[in-house]
Each structure stands twice: as structure tokens, then as C-alpha cells.
């Protein structure tokens, strides 16, 4: 696969993204991928490969991977602007939108503001809301996950602190009458409750639910093949 590795500039920031344009079939609607909290674009190379010949574009949000790390600018609208920047730079005009975990509210709010651009949406194991995060959460995340697991190059500590400091609580509702796939893990650790599913069902008339019996939150780790097949089948 001959991936393009590019930067999109937005308000003085460089936002990194990967693009499978060179190997793609232009007759297929592309997909834009919004990773989870500490994930980077590079962690989705295998999904881009799997979805070929469909074009895929995946970004590293600010403070992650090869993207710049500003001192401030970590609320919902700032992450939405990262998606806007890479969509503009990549030149995709109509696309599917896939998001995982903390990427879900960023993607939903983007879709709320740019509905005509979205062919369908795939939301993985996260409710339709942007959560305000506590100081306790930031301390626990950094000290009990980020440092021990060695993911400080994926997401910087100052990014975690910025998200904790600036994030605001918001329930997100999108007027969207095209297909939506919700992927949910059924085991302990899933971040999507039955009440959350009802919220999705109320706002999306063409909702498809795919449940993963061997997974909690991180379906890509426990049932990657099944997840990728479900995504591909939905897009097809």
C-alpha cells in the first residue's frame, strides 16, 4: 500500500493524516476515520489496507502522534476543527465517517455541522455525548495507563491535561436520515449502555446495531476481524 502521509494546517497547527488515495478506486465513496483518545493515525493502517480499494483517510487529533501539541484548544470545537482541516486538505467531498471512543463526539459534532457531506456513520462503543473530564480522571489516566503502557508518544501528558481542563459536557443530537452503524461490546468495559443505545435509536431512523459478544470497549483488540468485516459489509 502506497500511503500518503500529509499535514493539514489549521490556525497555525499541523494536523497529521494518512491517506490511501494512491491505491483507491475513485468510484467508491471514501471513509474518514476519527481515532480514540490516545490513538494515532498510524494505528489504523491495517484498516486502511483492509478497506481497499475504498479510499481511507485517518487523522491524529491535536496532541497525538505526529500532530502539533498546542498549549490550549482541547474542547469539542477544537477537535471538530481538526476533522475540518484534514477533510479540506484531502479534498474529500462526500464520505463515510467512522469514529471510536472519544472520537465519537468529535465525529458526531462534525456531522452535525456538515451533514450534507456524510454518506453514513459508524460509531464504536461510545455514547452520543462529549464528556467533561475531572482532574482525578487525568491523574489516573496518566499514572495508571499512559506511563505504564508507554503511550506518551501517542498522546502527550499536556494534551490529557488540556482535555481535562477545557472539556465541556454536551449531549449531541444529529438530524441524520442516512444509515448509521453502532458497534457495541457486550462484555464488562463497554462504554455504551442500553440507555445510550436508546438515545441513538431516537435520533437515527436508519440505525444498525452490531454487538460483539467477546468484547468490552476495545473491539479492535479482541474481535478485529469481525469488526473490520462488519464495517466493510456496512459500507458495501
UniProtKB/TrEMBL annotation:
One GO molecular-function entry: hydrolase activity
Flavoprotein found in the keyword field: no
AB hydrolase-1 domain mapped to chain residues: 30-140
Top-level taxonomic group: Bacteria
Matches recorded under InterPro entries: AB_hydrolase_1, AB_hydrolase_fold, AB_hydrolase_sf
Pfam families named among the record's database cross-references: Abhydrolase_1
Keyword tags: Hydrolase
Protein name: Alpha/beta hydrolase
Organism: Paenibacillus arenosi
Amino acid at each position: 500500500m502506497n500511503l500518503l502521509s500529509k499535514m493539514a494546517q489549521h490556525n497555525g497547527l499541523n494536523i497529521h493524516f494518512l491517506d490511501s488515495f494512491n491505491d483507491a478506486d475513485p468510484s467508491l465513496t471514501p471513509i474518514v476515520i476519527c481515532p480514540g483518545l490516545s490513538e494515532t493515525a498510524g494505528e489504523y493502517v491495517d484498516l486502511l489496507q483492509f478497506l481497499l480499494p475504498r479510499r481511507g483517510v485517518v487523522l491524529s487529533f491535536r496532541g497525538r502522534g505526529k500532530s502539533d501539541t498546542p498549549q490550549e484548544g482541547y474542547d469539542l470545537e477544537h477537535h471538530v476543527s481538526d476533522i475540518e482541516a484534514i477533510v479540506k486538505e484531502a479534498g474529500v467531498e462526500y464520505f463515510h465517517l467512522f469514529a471510536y471512543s472519544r472520537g465519537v463526539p468529535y465525529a458526531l459534532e462534525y456531522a452535525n455541522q456538515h451533514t450534507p457531506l456524510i454518506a453514513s456513520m459508524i460509531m464504536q462503543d461510545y455514547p452520543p455525548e462529549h464528556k467533561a473530564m475531572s482532574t482525578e480522571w487525568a491523574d489516573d489516566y496518566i499514572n495508571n495507563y499512559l506511563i505504564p503502557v508507554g503511550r506518551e508518544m501517542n498522546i502527550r501528558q499536556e494534551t490529557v491535561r488540556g482535555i481535562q481542563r477545557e472539556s465541556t459536557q454536551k449531549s449531541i443530537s444529529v438530524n441524520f436520515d442516512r444509515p448509521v452503524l453502532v458497534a457495541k461490546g457486550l462484555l464488562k468495559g463497554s462504554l455504551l449502555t442500553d440507555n445510550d443505545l436508546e438515545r441513538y435509536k431516537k435520533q437515527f431512523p436508519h440505525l444498525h446495531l452490531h454487538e460483539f459478544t467477546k468484547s468490552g470497549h476495545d473491539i479492535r483488540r479482541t474481535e478485529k476481524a469481525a469488526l473490520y468485516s462488519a464495517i466493510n459489509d456496512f459500507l458495501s
